[in-house]
Amino acid sequence: MTETTTRTAPDSGTEVTLPVHTDLLRLATAGSVDDGKSTLVGRLLHDTKSVLADQLDAVRRASADRGLATPDLSLLVDGLRAEREQGITIDVAYRYFATPKRTFVLADTPGHVQYTRNTVTGASTAQLAVLLVDARKGVIEQTRRHAAVLALLGVPQLVLAINKIDMVGFDEAVFTRIAAEFTAHARALGYRDDAVTTIPVSALLGDNVVERSANTPWYSGPSLLEHLESVPVAPDPHDAPFRMPVQYVIRPRTVEYPDYRGYAGQVAAGVVAEGDEVVVLPAGVRTRVSKVDTPDGSKPRAAAGHSVTLLLADDVDVSRGDLIAAADAPPQLTDELDATVCWLAEKPLTPAAKVLVKHGTRTVPAIVTDLSARFDEQQLSSVERPDSLQLNEIGRVQLRTAEPLPVDEYAASRRTGSFLVIDPADGTTLAAGLIGVPLAPLAAASE
Amino acid sequence: MTTVELPNDLADAPPQVDNLDALESEAIHIFREVAGEFDRPVILFSGGKDSTVLVHLALKAFWPAPVPFPLLHVDTGHNFSEVLAFRDELVERHDLRLVVASVQDYIDDGRLRERPDGTRNPLQTTPLLDGISENRFDAVFGGGRRDEERARAKERIFSLRNAFGQWDPRRQRPELWNLYNGKHRPGEHVRVFPLSNWTELDVWRYIQREKIELPELYYAHRREVYQRDGMWLTAGPWGGPREGEVPATKTVRYRTVGDGSCTGAVESEAYTVDDVIAEVAASRLTERGATRADDRLSEAAMEDRKREGYF
């Protein structure tokens, strides 16, 4: 399906194969501190030739300055002064690599104790997550928690990379046992078996990372990279009803376009076509799409992920913050949000707190009317009616908003089912909100 | 047992959008968010390929209306004349507004002093921050990409700067879904990077697809240069060649365009966009490693400059 073209680079005479059409896969990594995540990321970058000579030279120099005998590849990915000084990864970083088949955006998340904040950030846009475990330890509590958070965030595809398989003598029985345990856990979290892939790897030695390994003759599946290149992923649910938050009203008022009035936005879910009946929310006015415009000309239809400008058949009042939706399947309009929140700030959440909620392109004041449960990360169970939510905790809240919002369940539409909680005092992002997602699947992680 | 409905019905999903389409849509979305949420945005424009792509995307985001922001160019006084001519032509053609902050003015009236090494790149920060506060710009678009440098790999798409223009990498807001938080207090501003997820190759493939014009410096041409620190620098008012540095005429091109005192050319026979794409794909050096002296100053040169308010 991917076309390529071969050209000769003018300076070196090297033959390079260039993709002329590739798709984009957004993925995130997760795992605990010592399971070899940096090594795996380094290996993927290195073996896909995404690390260039001057970057390697810089790592060699820095490693030598520190008195190390061999280059420390974590220096490739740890970008901040403090990270290099402390030898830890503090924050999510984004990495880019490409093969002739696909382009990848990888959210490299730290395996630090502050797992929720980072995993949530990385997972919010990921179409796939690679979860690492150490073959000697198998599925541990952290693995179950990470998988639960990934399920909560609706990451469609999971890969369990069973790392350090060389340390257990490439033993098939070890792999089979861990794979079965993880698959069962993922199933309990709502994943179908075809959305979960388990791969035995050695990130250090390169087994089954890019090339399939001769050391695992009992394993017939793809290498990690082969899987990443071929796994089917839709960027957003196309079969969901159409949703588009209005970002900006385009009114040129120029000689050429005196009466043009277009509603600009990125399709958040579903597909919109010329002639479709739509409803503008919160007003509830119904009209038709008269044109789907782009700077490259009008299109018959646009799907989730596309930035477009819609022209409407009737002269209705639409502005930033409104949502244009399929008339036959509109979202629920409500000022009572029932949601799961991942608390990302040091300032704790307390009931009756006044906050701002950013949903789509609309930001409204809201009040926390109830904090009904907290997910206990130690016991992997729910605690009823906690006093507060602290940094990195996940809880169940009810919010009343100053104006009604057109919302979907997060599980049906990641874009229109999510919101930010913002501190009105200083603008800090306090929490990630997921509408309608119950805590029960997280508690299921303990079973 | 409760189960979550996961969106994994992928078998009948329509084909995925092209990588460049996805990146373009994301950048346009970012432009429109800023236009909707901020009072006085500005596009930081250097005349280089990334900022030229940025202007192209802004034109697309608001088409058929004009771009609702001005451009801000920090002129180091050591810019390549081809780049200044290109800038003025672009502004004229698209009827844009241009604000210029001049490093030379600062040196002339004593607010800044020339550095002993002659490079003016680090001197840009003061005129940039003054330009932002004098014009009360509250959102400043930059063409920075996360693939350029490992400190930039940590940068958010919306990056809050305090009243001194400083970046604090340890206190960044988490960025979730495509919900960007543009809240800021008076005096603070937000740096916005719509090309965050693009690589150098993506930028060139987009230039090819969209037939975007660039300053001719980006393509192979004959030029008198001299070698310093492993880079080919152009003779100019920025000093050089110094004693012992022998000028030679070479066929070169530029991978980045910045201050003439610290941006080097690479030997190249890439005369067309297609040639450049093939060259970039085969290159074993990053664009900054190949051609930017200021990034070689220390292991954390970029991070340190960003903390001070540089891009």
TrEMBL record, chain A:
Q: Which domain of life is it from?
A: Bacteria
Q: Matching InterPro entries, A to Z?
A: CysN_GTP-bd, CysN_II, CysN_NoDQ_III, G_TR_CS, GTP-eEF1A_C, P-loop_NTPase, SO4_adenylTrfase_lsu, T_Tr_GTP-bd_dom
Q: Name one GO biological process term.
A: sulfur compound metabolic process
**Tr-type G domain spans which residues?**
22-236
**EC number assigned by the record:** 2.7.7.4
Top EC category:
transferase
- Classification via PROSITE patterns: G_TR_1 (PS00301), G_TR_2 (PS51722)
Gene Ontology molecular function terms on file: ATP binding; GTP binding; GTPase activity; sulfate adenylyltransferase (ATP) activity
What UniProt keywords apply to this chain's record, in alphabetical order? ATP-binding, GTP-binding, Nucleotide-binding, Nucleotidyltransferase, Transferase
Spell out the protein name for this chain: sulfate adenylyltransferase
Annotated organism of origin: Saccharopolyspora phatthalungensis
From TrEMBL, chain B:
Query: Which ranges carry the Phosphoadenosine phosphosulphate reductase domain?
Result: 41-264
| SUPFAM superfamilies given in the database record | Adenine nucleotide alpha hydrolases-like (SSF52402)
- Pfam families referenced in this protein's UniProt entry, alphabetically: PAPS_reduct
What is one process in the GO biological process aspect for this record?
A: sulfate assimilation
User: Keywords of this protein's UniProt record, alphabetized?
Assistant: ATP-binding, Nucleotide-binding, Nucleotidyltransferase, Transferase
Which InterPro entries does this chain map to? PAPS_reduct_dom, Rossmann-like_a/b/a_fold, SO4_adenylTrfase_ssu, Sulfate_adenylyltrnsfr_sub2
| Enzyme Commission number(s) | 2.7.7.4
What GO molecular-function term can you cite, just one? sulfate adenylyltransferase (ATP) activity
* Coiled coil spans: none
Major enzyme class: transferase
Q: Which family does it belong to?
A: Belongs to the PAPS reductase family. CysD subfamily.
Cite the NCBIfam families for this sequence. CysD, PRK05253.1, PRK12563.1
Name by which UniProt lists this protein: Sulfate adenylyltransferase subunit 2
Native source organism of the sequence: Saccharopolyspora phatthalungensis
